[in-house]
Fold this sequence. Notes:
With 227 residues, the chain is mostly helical. It is 86% helix and 0% strand.
Amino acid sequence: MLAPFMKHPLKAVLKGVTNDPMDFSVGCIDSTNQSLALMYMTLGQEHSARRRLIQEQSARRRLIQEQSARRRLIQEQSARRRLIQEQSARRRLIQEQSARRRLIQEQSARRRLIQEQSARRRLIQEQSARRRLIQEQSARRRLIQEQSARRRLIQEQSARRRLIQEQSARRRLIQEQSARRRLIQEQSARRRLIQEQSARRRLIQEQSARRRLIQEQCVTPLSDLRL
Length: 227
């Protein structure tokens, strides 16, 4: 911009972006140089035209600056909006992740609760099964005890019956023995009686024989005497 007003010529090679809205590009400098060249070529123009041109250029520059400022503002606003959207998206994502974590925790807690409830139910079922088994075992033991008591009672009754039978058999044996003794005594008494009777008969026979003998002795002398 200051090259036309310098005393010595300036040689400059411009490089870089040619469409940046903030910095002056090569095209902008070229256009200004052309306008300045035309301004210097037309020496007959009035100073007002120059001022107007300068004002127009300044207005253009201001307009470019305002546009660039607006663009910057729009870009900043869009960047802010994007940042806000990204932050809101991140927040939403964090909220969703926290909600998912909470849901997962709730599900895990529910699963744990269900597992605990199932474990408790299983424990209760096992305890009830154990109680039933204990009751069945106690019932079996009671039944076995009752059966053993019945067997003992039956054995005692059978032993009593056997004892009674033995006692009755002994009594019968004693009665038979006593009957046999009585019978023996009766037979011995009968034998004694028979012997006594036989002895009496013998004695009577002997007495009768003696009487006969005496009679015979007494009869013989009478006969002799008759003779």
